[in-house]
Write a structure and sequence with these properties.
Layout lengths: L1 H42 L2 E3 L1 H11 L1 H21 L5 E10 L5 E4 L6 E2 L2 E2 L5 E4 L4 E12 L2 H71 L4 H36 L7 E3 L12 H11 L1 H21 L5 E12 L7 E10 L7 H68 L4 H36 L9
Parallel strand pairs: 1-8
Antiparallel strand pairs: 2-7, 3-6, 4-5, 7-9, 9-10
Length: 469
């Protein structure tokens, strides 16, 4: 009987232990799968096209976020300046305590004598008001002649708001150009890495053949040494390309507002068919749309408003007002009373300060106008430079395409000759490596052409990557 109970108890404990083990195994398996999923998501590369990269940078770049806050700041400043056109309602209240009061002294009998009794019958002191005074006045005031100056201040605020928008547009164009530059740089280095890997593979096969020939006595040791040096150079090129890719990827992640360790998979298919205008048309369009020129034009408008505002200092400030007042403790005034009228304020003599201010603002206007003209010339030179660069890179693409075509034909002939036993296999490998390198140079030339186009778009005033080619 005791043995049976012992057996049943042991079997129950065994079942409980087995259940706990299964639960623990299930939990451990689930945790491991969860960690594996997180690891796979962390290691998964993010695929980006050029347009997606530009849009992501415009949305998340911190420099652009700061510029947008600057735009909001100037917009609110413009709203504050606009409110100066309207009347203001103010209240001024005071509470004070004075140490002595003025008293009105009435001597005895000042009002005569009645029935032999003087009125008053003794000297009387009448205090005027209270030692603790309280007054409160609410006034509505409408500026009149100040509206001329307020109008100029509104022109200044509007110009500053427009300038901040132009600065934001210029910053967006610069960021988009940087995205293009890094995007193309990564693609070019990836092509260079593949070409270096192909060259390394060719050097490895060549080294193996030369070592076999040295062992057979059909080649000198110097051939194997030269092949080994070529192999090491190829490996060095691969490592250099990998370091450049890591550096460019980190810069791209920072530009896009992504975590710095994000792996990127860039789409090499970039649209390259677009129509170009004439150089004069580009210059005309740049003068109309370039944000730096537009900001300079706003600076001229701001300077003109400053000159006009400085001249309004010669006009007296006239303000119409109406006020309601309440007081307690002030002698000879009722508790509630109102008044209205015109307030005038004018500086009669300031020792030439207003004249000097007008001359200062006039000099600022002349400076702004000269800066605008200088900037137009500078943009015209930049358009000429970018346009010439676009033409040169287009010619480079044509030359690289011809070289790639010749290298491909050379590889085909080498393959056919190797089949017939005319050339060695190493010659075929060399032709293959040269063909791959020519394709890489063609792709690099195409990307250089696209980057030149992006620079021209930025110079004109358009955001590269967001305009249709």
């Amino acid at each position: 009987m005791i043995a049976r109970q012992t057996y049943r108890l042991g079997s129950r404990l065994g079942r409980h232990t087995s259940t706990r083990q299964r639960i623990f195994r299930f939990t451990a398996t689930t945790a491991a799968l969860f960690l594996c999923a997180i690891s796979s998501l962390a290691n998964e590369a993010r695929h980006l096209t050029l347009t997606e990269a530009v849009r992501l940078a415009l949305q998340q770049n911190r420099t652009l976020k700061i510029a947008r806050f600057k735009v909001q700041e100037n917009e609110y400043r413009k709203e504050a300046a606009r409110s100066d056109y309207l009347p203001t309602i103010t209240n001024q209240s005071n509470i004070l305590h004075i140490t002595e009061l003025q008293e009105l002294s009435i001597p005895a009998g000042a009002f005569g004598v009645a029935a032999g009794v003087p009125i008053p019958n003794s000297a009387t002191l009448l205090p005027q008001g209270k030692k603790t005074l309280f007054s409160s006045g609410t006034m509505i005031a409408q500026p009149l002649t100040q509206l001329l100056r307020i109008r100029q201040e509104n022109r200044v605020a509007a110009a500053e708001a427009a300038t901040s928008r132009d600065d934001l547009k210029n910053a967006e164009n610069e960021v988009a150009l940087q995205v293009h530059s890094l995007y193309y740089a990564i693609l070019v280095v990836q092509l260079q890495k593949k070409a270096a890997e192909q060259q390394t593979s060719f050097a490895t096969e060549n080294l193996r053949d030369n070592e076999n020939d040295v062992r057979k006595g059909s080649a000198l040791q110097v051939a194997a040494i030269q092949s080994r040096a070529e192999l090491l150079q190829g490996q060095q090129s691969v490592l250099t390309a990998e370091l450049q890719i890591d550096d460019y990827t980190t810069e791209m992640n920072d530009l896009l507002g992504l975590p710095l360790d994000t792996k990127l998979e860039l789409d090499p298919e970039v649209e390259a068919n677009f129509e170009t205008l004439s150089k004069s048309e580009y210059v005309k369009e740049a003068w109309e749309e370039n944000p730096e020129i537009r900001a300079a034009e706003e600076a001229v408008e701001k300077a003109r408003a400053g000159v006009a505002a400085a001249k309004t200092a010669y006009i007296p400030d006239i303000t119409a007002y109406a006020r309601h007042s309440y007081q307690d403790g002030v002698p000879f005034l009722v508790r509630n009373f109102g008044d209205f009228g015109i307030h005038l304020n004018y500086t009669l003599w300031d020792f030439g300060k207003r004249r000097a201010t007008v001359r200062e603002r006039s000099s600022q206007l002349a400076e702004a106008e000269q800066h605008l003209e200088h900037l137009k010339e500078k943009v015209a030179v930049a358009v000429d430079h970018s346009y010439n660069k676009l033409e040169r890179t287009k010619n480079m693409v044509n030359v690289a395409a011809q070289v790639a075509q010749l290298r491909q034909e050379s590889e085909r002939l080498a393959t056919n000759q190797a089949t017939q036993g005319v050339v060695l296999i190493s010659d075929v490998r060399h032709a293959t490596a040269a063909n791959y390198e020519a394709k890489a140079e063609l792709s690099q030339a195409n990307l250089g052409y696209l980057l030149a186009w992006a620079e021209l778009e930025r110079t004109v005033g358009r955001t590269p990557g967001l305009t249709a080619p």
